[in-house]
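Exercise 7.
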Amino acid sequence: MKYSANTLKFGILIAAALILIGVFLVIQSGGNWDYILPRRGKKILAIVLTGACIAYSTAIFQTITNNRILTPGIMGLDSLYMLFQTFAVFVFGSSHISFVNKNLNFAVSVLLMTLFALLLHQFMFRRERGRNIYLLLLVGLILGTLFQSLSSFMEVLIDPNEFLILQGKMFASFNNVNTDLLIISMASILLILLYARKFTKYLDVLALGKDHAVNLGVNYHYIVKRLLLVVMVLVSISTALIGPIMFLGLLVVNLAHQVFRTHRHTVLIWGSVIIAVVALVGGQLIVERVFTFSTTVSVIINFIGGVYFIYLLLKESKSW
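Solution. The predicted structure, written as tokens, is:
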């Protein structure tokens, strides 16, 4: 009975996603299908890739940390991305190739964030018995604050016109997505998901907690280390592709918990991905048709996600 109820919910969510995608593709097209559809199709592909990366990585991250109000952004990857963008404008100017060339900017951003993740991961887990994941989160939070402070320092010193150009990197945007980046991102994400498959089957056991997982024969440290690397690389790719969206993961994964009422991660991850696609396509439609590009989808998602975050905090405080 429960399986049938979740199947029906999946059907409704998939139908909602397909309807929104159809509306997004054809609305106000004016009959110029050959011109409009490929361009809107690129946005849809970028939305699906971004939604899948953020939902998948957040669902795994919350299981590893056993905390439903945390997102991978706490490790400072978003702040490192903005520090690189600000540093490039501060030192070289907004007309430098490292800022203007989207392919080069994407490659350097992903490389920097991945290197940071690997160094943080290697340093914190060098001695498995002496480190734990909460210390990793604390170090990531402190470094993220440091990166954010350095970015703010440089932002107040650069030319106001340069700052206006830099502002475009502060908010996620699906406009003018580079097709080359989509192909590279899609290939990278598929490879990472294939690598993660042999570890994600342990998520249901990991959700029981470290002690229970170890008692049930799971190689806890080995699996958690590799899943954390998968999370960090996926967040790096999605951030470098369209920019930081702070509350999307928190919003969609918790909604998936509310909708499906299950602890099976196969259901939760797929549900989170579909909800993320619905939220992003709906948000982009509102940006383009209601606000006529006067705001970005990240502003709308972060506003709704922020309100939902406060709701979760108040809800948890009542249970103490």
